[in-house]
Amino acid sequence: MRHFWLGIGWLFVGLGVIGIALPVMPTVPFLLVAAWAFARSSPALRQRILDHPTYGPSVRAWQERGAVGRLAKLWAISAMTVGVAISWFAGMPHWVVATQGGICAVVALYLATRPER
């Protein structure tokens, strides 16, 4: 199982690295999953994520307190809102837009209630 978790960790580190370059892809959520997987396979790699000068504080804040920075909350909720609006303007079926909007509203509510870093 150690190799499985190690593979998951590296996969999500790779997705996080892609997220650094692509503004539509977040980095920290992928690093959260990577740190979680590395905790089960390589504590040293988990610690490297936690010690990273840019992304480590966000990962530690989530792991310790479930905290999310205010700017991250605003970006995430704005991106979800824009995504639902694009679906609506693109003429997606109403049930698709309603389902997407409902899921995004629940996620946004959860995110908004998290403590701030």
From TrEMBL:
The chain crosses the membrane at residues 6-39, 71-89, 95-113. Keywords: Membrane, Transmembrane, Transmembrane helix. It comes from the Bacteria. The keyword Transmembrane applies. InterPro entries: DUF454. One of its GO terms (cellular component) is plasma membrane. The keyword Transmembrane applies. This is DUF454 domain-containing protein. It comes from Paracoccus aestuarii.
